[in-house]
Task: inverse folding
């Protein structure tokens, strides 16, 4: 995309929105500082400069950091102090973190800086925006953050790039020395002054960025799961009566009502629902079918709570010490990642359970003893053909991994900094495992989609709902083959995964139902 056509996000002093984060992280939107932000930056910096000129020590301005905060640092060493904290804290190890995560990290740190509460000079903030707009992405590593005193190592690697040191990825995707990339973009490296090094690396920006993106992905997946649950209910000749609004109203969880309403929309006009077989009469469907709205809805309500936490964080200025409008610079504990870490872990639990119930529905479609007339494993010639037997194995392996990923990271704490930082959030770790969980959940839903659409096509003589028919047509158009003899299955599963991941599943259903929740 031509740089001139990219959207622009303007940062003021009151934070940013989730849409802003997504636009910058994933859409490469440009960033500008508002006039209000520049004024707030200048006012905050004046407070720091005034305090720096005084003889008494002020944490982060004229002292060491963490357990070394007892040492007073004279004016002649303060620039070196700020450089040193960035260099020493850029201690990450392991694989590189994804480009979109680092862009979110850069943007959210700039969001806090733009508030004027950090004491960073306007020119440093402008350089942060220039680096983002130039498409320069610092090399940030998987390990190094404990989620307390902020995402220290990840943010330090970002600050190192501003200084023209370390490595970064250029707009062409090539990793080069950061100084070379800045020079090529015409950006002058920053020379940090009092408090600025600390201010650039003392925030919960990495875990928050990953939370915002996970919420966007989960919103799509929750709708996708409602669609696949409806397709499976239909393929199993289940009853849609349990989805009635009056039944949801007597247990008024909003997420449950939304999921049930989605399923009803998808199933409208179905010729399969309620056709219980004479040789296997059913009074009720199995839990994995009948309770789909309750489980998916609980996940929706979990996401709603997490979204509230994210919105509060997006409106926050997280730094220590913080510059107050009345001229004080005060130490605080707002950098602790517990609020974000808890909801990241909570979402991983919800993702695991949504995957678990999806896998149980898939298994029911494949079991001839429970599928009410469908062939074993949806195979063309069971015994000669194995059908989708091993697709369910893959799904089960993914679900098992999701259950391991649901173990909370935030319940752990390893003291650091000579026991000064004796309780940490592990929020970065919670965010990293949630990203994997969301990725795996996508694959699990894709496998249910693959099985359910095949099962519906095997119900000869019965007409699926118009929305179901639209999904089947779209998924076949996307390269996912229908019923037939055994073939190389991995390409079909990959195509189904892409169909869910890109939002094509939701779009296909909504082409008939209209907007789904």
Result:
């Amino acid at each position: 995309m031509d740089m001139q056509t990219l959207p622009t996000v303007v940062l003021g002093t009151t934070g940013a929105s989730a849409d802003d984060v997504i636009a910058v992280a994933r859409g490469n939107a440009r960033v500008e500082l508002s006039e209000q932000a520049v004024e707030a930056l200048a006012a905050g910096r004046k407070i720091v400069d005034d305090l720096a000129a005084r003889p008494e020590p002020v944490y982060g301005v004229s002292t060491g950091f963490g357990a070394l905060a007892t040492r007073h640092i004279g004016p002649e060493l303060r620039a070196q102090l700020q450089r040193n904290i960035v260099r020493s804290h850029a201690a990450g190890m392991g694989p590189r973190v994804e480009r979109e995560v680092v862009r979110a990290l850069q943007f959210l740190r700039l969001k806090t800086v733009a508030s004027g509460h950090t004491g960073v000079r306007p020119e440093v903030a402008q350089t942060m925006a220039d680096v983002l707009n130039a498409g320069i992405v610092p090399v940030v590593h998987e390990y190094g953050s404990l989620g307390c005193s902020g995402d220290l190592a990840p943010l330090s690697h970002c600050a190192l790039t501003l200084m023209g040191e370390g490595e970064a990825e250029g707009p062409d995707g090539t990793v080069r020395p950061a100084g070379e990339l800045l020079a090529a973009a015409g950006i002058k490296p920053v020379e940090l002054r009092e408090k600025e090094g600390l201010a650039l690396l003392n925030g919960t920006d990495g875990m928050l960025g990953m939370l915002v993106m996970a919420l966007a992905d989960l919103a799509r997946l929750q709708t996708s799961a409602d669609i696949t649950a409806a397709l499976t209910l239909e393929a199993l000749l289940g009853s849609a009566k349990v989805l009635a609004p009056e039944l949801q109203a007597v247990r008024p969880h909003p997420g449950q009502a939304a999921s049930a309403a989605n399923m009803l929309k998808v199933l409208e006009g179905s010729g399969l629902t309620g056709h219980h077989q004479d040789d296997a009469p059913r009074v009720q469907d199995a839990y994995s079918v009948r309770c789909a709205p309750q489980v998916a809805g609980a996940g929706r309500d979990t996401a709603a709570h997490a979204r509230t936490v994210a919105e509060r964080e997006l409106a926050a200025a997280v730094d220590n010490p913080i510059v107050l409008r009345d001229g004080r610079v005060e130490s605080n504990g707002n950098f602790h990642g517990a609020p974000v870490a808890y909801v990241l872990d909570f979402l991983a639990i919800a993702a695991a359970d949504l995957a678990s119930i999806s896998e149980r529905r898939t298994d029911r479609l494949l079991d001839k003893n429970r599928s009410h007339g469908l062939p074993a494993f949806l195979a063309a010639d069971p015994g000669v053909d194995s059908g989708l037997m091993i697709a369910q194995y893959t799904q089960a392996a993914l679900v098992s991994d999701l259950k391991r990923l649901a173990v909370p990271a935030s319940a752990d704490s390893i003291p650091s900094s000579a026991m000064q930082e004796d309780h940490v959030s592990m929020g970065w770790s919670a965010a990293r495992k949630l990203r994997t969980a969301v990725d795996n959940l996508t694959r699990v839903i894709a496998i249910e989609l693959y099985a359910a659409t095949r099962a519906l096509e095997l119900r000869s003589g019965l007409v699926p709902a118009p929305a179901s028919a639209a999904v089947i047509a779209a998924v076949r158009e996307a390269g996912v083959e229908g019923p037939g003899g055994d073939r190389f299955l991995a390409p079909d599963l990959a195509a189904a995964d892409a169909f869910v991941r890109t939002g094509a599943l939701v779009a296909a259903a909504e082409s008939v139902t209209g907007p789904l929740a």
The first strand starts at residue 8 and ends at 11. Strands lie at 8-11, 30-33, 93-96, 137-138, 141-143, 167-169, 175-177, 322-323, 329-330.
